[in-house]
Amino acid sequence: MRPITRRNALILGGVGAVGIGIGGTGLWLARDTSSPIPSQTDVGLELTEPPELRSSNGALSVALEAAAGPVTIAGSTVTALSYNGGLPGPTLRIHAGDTLSVNLRNDLTDPSNLHTHGLHVSPKDNSDNAFVTVPAGGSFDYRYELPANHPPGVYWYHPHHHGSVTDQVFGGLYGAIIVEDPVPIPTARERVLVISDITVSSAGTIPAATRMERMSGREGELVLVNGQLRPALSSRPGERERWRVVNACVSRYLRLRLDGQQLTLLGIDSGRFASPRSVDEIVLAPGNRADLLVTAIAGTSELESLPYNRGTSGGMMGGMRGGGSAKAATIPLATVTVTGDAVADAAAVPQQALPRDLRGVTVTAKRELVFSMGMGGMGGGMMSPTINGRTFDPNRVDETVEFGSVEEWLLTNTSTLDHPVHLHVWPMQIVERGGQALPDVLWQDVVNVPAQSTTRVRIAFDDFRGRTVYHCHILDHEDAGMMGVVEAP
Ligand code: C2O
Ligand code: CU
Ligand code: CU
Q1: Which residue has its alpha carbon closest to ligand 1 atom 1?
Q2: 230 touches ligand 1 (CB under 6 Å)
Q3: Contact 483, 221 (CB under 8 A)
Q4: pLDDT, one tens digit for every residue, the chain (489 residues)
Q5: Residue 85 and residue 78: Cα distance in Å, rounded?
Q6: Which ligand minimizes its atom distance to the CA of 174?
Q7: How far away, in angstroms, is 54 Cα from ligand 1 center?
Q8: Geometric angle at alpha carbon 262, from 333 and 221, rounded to 5°
Q9: Residue 153 CA to ligand 2 centre (angstroms)
Q10: SS3 state of residue 475
Q11: Ligand 1 atom nearest 446 alpha carbon
Q12: If you ran DSSP here, which 8-state letter would residue 337 be given?
C-alpha cells in the first residue's frame, strides 16, 4: 500500500478527475493525478524566460530544431513539441536592417515550416514563404532581410504548414521575436511573456482535438506564461518594466488586467501608437502582441485573463460556446509582488515615430472578404469555415493586388463566432469598426472581426512583391481552410 500523500489523497477524493481550485480564483486542473502532469504545487515559481539570441553586426543566425520530446510544462515533464527542447522556443532579438538566418530542422513526424508572424519581409523564396514544405526529417535554410525602416515591436514565429498548424502550435512550437527600438526606452528590466494554452492528458501527452473543438477552435485547460503555471514576478516600487506579451494561444482570446499596477500600452503588434496610452485592460486575439510598460506600485497584483465572449458556433449539436462555459472564468496568469525601497521615477518615454495614416490617401481598389461558417466539410453536418464561400487552395490566387498601391478591404463576419483576421507581410490600418470610423490611427496585423459585424481596413502593398496568405488566426479555422492567397505580382 502506498502512503497517502497529498496527491494520492486527491485521487481518492476525485475518482480520476480532480478539480483543484487555486487561490479561489478558479483555475482548475481537471485530471488524473497519478501521472506526471502539472499540479498546484508548481504554482508560484519565479518567472523564467526563454533563452535570448541577439543579433550582432547586422546579423543573427540561429538553428531551430522542431521535435517531440519531454519538456517541462508548469514544473512537470510532458511529451510535447518544442523548438530546441524548450517551450517557448528561444527569443530572437534583432534590429531593423538585420538579416535573420534560421536553419529549421524538422524532427517531427509531419511536415512543417516556419512563419515569422508580423515581420515586414519578403514572402518569396526562402524568406517568409508560407508555401514552403519542410518534410519530416528534412531541414530548410530561411533568410529574412528586414528593411532599414522596419517597425520596432513584438513579433513571433510558429509553424505554418496548412493542415497541421494548430496541432503544432498547440503542441508547443512558438517563440518571440523582438525588433529593438532605435532609441531604447529606459526601463528597470524587460520581460518576454509568451502566453499559451495547452491540455495535457493523464498520460502526460497532448490529446487530439475533438471535432467540436476544431469547429469552435480548441482552448487548452492550462494557460501558461513562458510554459509556467502562474509564475511569480517581483519588482520594487517605482520601477518601470517593459513587457513584451505574445498571445500564442491557438483560439483563446486574452483579456488581460493587472489591477493595482500602472499599465502604459506602447502599441499592439507592430502598430506603435503616436503616444503611449494608459490602460486598465488589453484584449489580445490569438496572434496579437502587446508592447507594454508596467510601472510598479507597492503591493501584490494578479495578472488575470478575464472571460471574453467570442460567440458560439452553431451546428448539429445546438451550438457550443467558444471555449465552453467551464472556461468562462477569470484565470490567474501570474503574481506580481512589489516590495522594498522605492526607486526614483523613470525617465520620460522617448517620442515615438508618428504612425502613417492611410485615411487620406487614394485607394486603388476596394474588396470585401466574407468570413462565414457554411454547412458541409469537416466531416459531414459540421460547419465549415470559408472566406468568400471558398476554402484554401494554395494553387489559386484569390486576390491580385497592385504592388505599391493602397487598398481598402471590408472584412465581413456573417457567423456567430468572432474571427481574428490576419494578413502576412503587410500590416492593416483599421479605419472603421461596425460602421463607425476610428478616431485614432490603429495598425495591427491581427484584426478581430466580431461575430456578425464588419471591420474596414486599409493596406499599403509596399516594399515586397510575391504571394502570401491571409487567414483566420483561430488556427483550427485556418487549418480547416479559412485562408486565402493574395499576390502582388
Ligand atoms: Cu501567426 Cu499566418 O500566422
Ligand atoms: Cu502571420
Ligand atoms: Cu475563425
Answers
A1: 117
A2: no
A3: no
A4: 333 333 322 222 222 233 333 333 233 343 334 445 554 345 678 999 999 999 999 999 999 999 999 998 877 889 999 999 999 999 999 999 999 999 999 999 999 999 999 999 999 999 999 999 999 999 999 999 999 999 999 999 999 999 999 999 999 999 999 999 999 999 999 999 999 999 999 889 999 999 999 999 999 999 999 999 999 999 999 999 999 999 999 999 999 999 999 999 999 999 999 999 999 999 999 999 999 999 999 999 999 999 999 997 654 343 444 444 345 689 999 999 999 999 988 888 888 888 999 999 999 999 999 999 976 555 555 678 999 999 999 999 999 999 999 999 999 999 999 999 999 999 999 999 999 999 999 999 999 999 999 999 999 999 999 999 999 999 999 999 999 999 999
A5: 12
A6: 1
A7: 23
A8: 10
A9: 15
A10: helix
A11: 1
A12: E
Dump strand ranges (E) for 119-238.
139-145, 153-158, 175-179, 189-198, 222-225, 232-235
Q: Which residue has the cell 540561429?
A: 62
Q: How far is the CA of 477 from the centre of ligand 3 (A)?
A: 5
Q: Is 424 in the pocket of ligand 1 (CB under 6 A)?
A: yes
Ligand 1 pocket member 161 (CB < 6 A): no
Q: Which candidate, 154, 140, 174, places its Cα nearest to that of 71? A: 174
User: Among residues 306, 305, 283, 294, which one has the least CA distance to residue 234?
Assistant: 294
